[in-house]
Amino acid sequence: MQNLRIPGPTACPPETLAELSRQMINHRGPEFADMQARIMERLKLFFRTQNEVYVMTCSGTGVMEAAIVNTLSPGDRVLSVSIGEFGDRFFDIAEAYGAAVTKLAFEPGTAADPKAVANALAADPGYKAVLVTHNETSSGVTNDINAISKAIRAVNPDILLIVDAISSLGCIPFAADAWDVDVSTTCSQKGFMIPPGLAFISLSPRAWKAYESSTIQKYYFDIGKAKSYAERGQTPFTPAVSLYYGLDLGLEMMDKEGMEQVNARHAAIGDYTRAKARALGLKMLAEGPHASNTVSSILVPEGVNAGELLKILNTDYDTVLASGQGKLTGKIVRIGHMGMTSREDIDAAIDALEKALDRLGYKKPAGVGA
Ligand SMILES: Cc1ncc(COP(=O)(O)O)c(C=O)c1O
Q: Taking CB atoms and a 6 Å cutoff, what residues make up the pocket around ligand 1?
């Protein structure tokens, strides 16, 4: 079986996959309403919020767009913090809808410095919102959202903090309420052990206030529609019912395991992956507290072609790792370890990596990994 080790979509457990083939139900009937209520209640646990969490049928980029169109208006000043490709995407979406966006970029492989974010806000009091990625999947770096939130609120307590937690929530600790996040977004194909196609969004009271005055044109992603239909146990448009079946079970499994334990399991598999890579003499792009526990970026050793490495892994070892993106293209390969990932999956991937590197002439430095 293929060892799919990309940072989403992730390989799903057979139990959730089996749910996907169940017969359809009426999405405006009582069974759907019960299922949606269960799902929304459990999602609140993982968002660590008292606010409602709405499910939308779309990919992660869809809820990023929902976050923007529901809280901003054309011309609003926005500070977009970017530590990589997905931070850049948030910038692009806000700009596409006519916000006046300023990018605050940090070198790929590093985390956003909360002080620098606060300083950018202090230098210009006109900002209405800050956009930030919790876990930058393109570099394998996790931002400290709590520290960023505290730093920006010290400058402007009412600013909207809008967070892409797409490759973190449900894996790495995230706390919408305790961290005073206004819009929290994530989606199905990363930590929730089901395929792509559903996305989740929660708004704070501050964000709902912004919704009331937002003048960006919206229709499919209008969160007000999602709210009023959810109150009747429905969604405004036909939902991906099969994915709801999978999600219902995935959340039940996560709830049984316990949120703290799910987070601890991701921390352990992150540490394990990095230790195994280091034991081959490889270096990580990110180390220390900002190294991601859902995706690890390994620097490709000098003299090794990243594209060839990935191709050999795929064709000869049935192992799929992800390439670098943007500025990191050719410089790193990424191993996903979110959702249902075992030590055996990582052992097999690292074993394949060792063999493929050997074929490309890589020699482990003397004294490493003994
Ligand atoms: C951090 C982050 N943001 C946004 C996205 C975009 O999600 P999607 O590809 O589901 O639209 C991804 C997907 O990999 C991601 O990792």
A: 8, 59-61, 86, 133, 137, 164, 166-167, 187, 196
